[in-house]
Amino acid sequence: MNTHFRRTEKSWIRILLTAIALVFVLLFIALPMLLVFAEAFSRGWAFYRDTLSESDAISAISLTLLTAAIAVPLNVIFGVAAAWAIARFNFRGKSFLITLIDLPFSVSPVVAGLMYLLLFGNQTALGVWLDAHDLKIIFAVPGIVLATTFVTFPFVARELIPLMQSQGADEEQAALVLGAGSLQTLWHVTLPNIKWGLLYGVILTNARAMGEFGAVSVISGHIRGVTNTIPLHVEILYNEFNIAGAFVCASVLALLAIVTLILKSIIEWRQHRSHQQSLRRSGNPTQPGAGSRIGVATAISAT
Amino acid sequence: MSIEVRHVTKTFGDFTALADISLQIHSGQLLALLGPSGCGKTTLLKIVAGLEQPDSGQLLFEGVDATNKHVTERGIGFVFQHYALFRHMTVFDNIAFGLNVKPRRLRPSKAQIHDKVHRLLKMVQLDWLADAYPSQLSGGQRQRIALARSLAVEPQVLLLDEPFGALDARVRKDLRRWLRQLHDEIHLTSIFVTHDQEEALEVSDRVVVMNHGQIEQVGTPDEIYEHPASAFVTQFLGDVNLFHGRIQDEQFTRGDYTQPLAPGNIHGNSDDEVTAYIRPHDIELTQDASNALDRGTIEHVHAIGPVVRLELARAGSSDPIEVVMTRERYRILGLNPGDTVYVKPRKMAVFTRNKASAVA
Known about the structure:
The complex is a heterodimer.
Chain A: H1 11-40, H2 45-53, H3 55-88, H4 94-106, H5 109-120, H6 125-132, H7 141-151, H8 154-167, H9 170-177, H10 182-211, H11 214-220, H12 230-239, H13 243-281, H14 288-292
Chain B: E1 3-12, E2 15-25, E3 30-34, H1 41-49, E4 56-61, E5 64-65, E6 76-79, H2 91-100, H3 110-123, H4 139-152, E7 157-161, H5 169-186, E8 189-194, H6 197-203, E9 206-211, E10 214-219, H7 221-226, H8 231-236, E11 241-247, E12 251-254, E13 257-260, E14 273-278, E15 283-286, E16 294-304, E17 307-314, E18 317-326, H9 327-333, E19 340-345, E20 349-352, E21 357-359
Parallel strand pairs in B: 3-8, 3-9, 6-7, 7-8
Antiparallel strand pairs in B: 1-2, 1-4, 4-5, 9-10, 11-12, 11-14, 12-13, 14-20, 15-19, 16-17, 16-19, 17-18, 20-21
């Protein structure tokens, strides 16, 4: 990176601010994470392996992964579509849509779970209809997926809307003028420009989808081996006074988070490397001699 | 390709951007849309491009109604003020974009695309930048690449939206000249939007002066400058000094000063109150009081490059009279701050207080 920060503050201010940030990170993030892993392995590797090979644990892990695998793509599609509509067009109900997108943030997850419980339960006509056709939503996997999708609704959209608004529509208009269709424009111009925002939104969505507790807890029914995700399983183990076991499962979540972040860093590093390579390949693009003498060398001839 | 705009109107909420605009653009012309911010020139350009839809009116390409044609089918090239290069693609891919997105049966082969892109890069003298990314280029380079990109699809019309507005003065001058040369070679019907009158007068075949969503005047750069049709056009095209007076018997009068007006150019009746608009370089300063338009005292003298600009204080107005002359002339006259001099115009444009026109 070619950024050069001018030192305008006194060095003690710099040191103090850096120290405060570091202490915060160490105390509230790094230390607890390390403790989770320390506790998880406190009973040895065999205990760790056995806890995770229990059938309940395995089904919890696979349900968590399944939920994330459905919720994340759904919210990516919705997020990109909503961001494009909001950032590029004016339409009736636009501010209503924006408020709607922010709703899951302001609603407590427990309330969200309860909302679905009531909607699909026997109190409503819909619930009665579902029961009559033996379609299980609440206390079953579909309900968990629904609740998770709801609470992770805003992440991608909120990440992309300001990004797309600040980037402006010029590049997309240029693509249209050059003859690209809407899908081609989306694929070749819009998505590459928002890919970092999209990636970050996906990471947030994924993290929340895997770690969601409140909404899923209300709607799952806690049926062991069927409707338990990893967070719910951690609660069960904790309530059975199997503290170390709870930490083992918690460490799985922590590990998934770390893997996601490593993936993100790898992608960023490779992007940076290819950019540097192209810089070197074209020499120094802004040599003074190059730009000044301009003339029309050859005309374009019709092919 | 000739373009005709017929009775186009466009409003944004309460704001009227274009009010019943009609315009003819002949094939092969380089036309400038000139006007202040908010006059509707960019809106008109975008309507021609298909990036905006008019509320009413028609747009014809070669006599064929194209009002409802989608932007992707109009066969136009568009150059944006801030280049709009695809930031994550190399220069080569940027220029090849229009060719790469063509439907399969119309798409040229990879080798043909490669040749064409390199020919265009040579034309803009930047073929050593084929693998660079837009963020690594200077403003002038980016705009040239943007131009090459728009020409790759062989458009029938080239539209430019304040193409040099984001560049610094030296680069702007160079590119202006270069655009003119390019147009002389390939004779592509082109429309460009600018608020810089110098640019419009230097580059274009015809100028359309706009204000508040309406066309004030259409003509060649010479016509517009020598025979402005309204006070707005006169004031927009450069600095002017204003002198109030009257029309009497086909003459402009102000106190003892009279100036016969060119016959056939008189719009207004006897005794109308009018204003004379005189450019700073059309004023002669003398010590001779006979038939002088006005009298002033020299307050400031600024030597700016090859010319000298004088500001004169005058009675009856807080606005100074601005006079521009060559250094040579200034030296010969031997004037100094504090001197009282008499003002005699060589040329003036006279308009009634409301609208247009009578020119001497």
